[in-house]
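My main concern about presentation is that the manuscript never shows what a single data entry looks like. For the editor and my fellow referees, an illustration may be useful. For illustration, here is how one protein appears when written out as sequence plus structure tokens:

***
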Amino acid sequence: MSPARPTISALLSDITHSPEALTRLDRALLALRHVLVRPVTSELQIPSLGRSVEFAKVAACEGAAGVSADGATVTVKSLAEALQLDHSTMSRVVADCEADGLLVRGSDPTDRRRTTIALTADGDSLVADSLALRVWFMDEVLADWPEADLALLADMLERAVSTFDARFPLVHRAAEERLGYPLPLE
């Protein structure tokens, strides 16, 4: 008879923080995710464009702005990686954005085989309007929070994102090694 495989709850035997605090954090992050990704509609009204734009296109344009702000050349591959989507999905969204006049394809001057992606003027307007709308919403929702609390929350969330981004792959691999079987990422 083969030995029983450890259960995932076996990972809890050597945690260093309070399980109650970690459970509260987990529940708060899940609740925040549900609030933030639960759009009222599937499109965002963009006044500067005089029309609405599907959220997938908004995300693609914001992703392109983010990748280029980091100094990287924007390609379908880099955009897919930034948004954690597969290449074929990102390619379809980029094609839709291009047809909608939000993104334009070009050639990489250092490697003519690579196709680059850049925001058009409409794409820039979309990114600016989307950010302005989110900032306004946050200000309205958090209107009674002191400025110091907002700054602390932003600092803590930035730190958490950085920590999760750096450590998650290592911790995931360690969990799989300890359990002896693969854990799906999604």
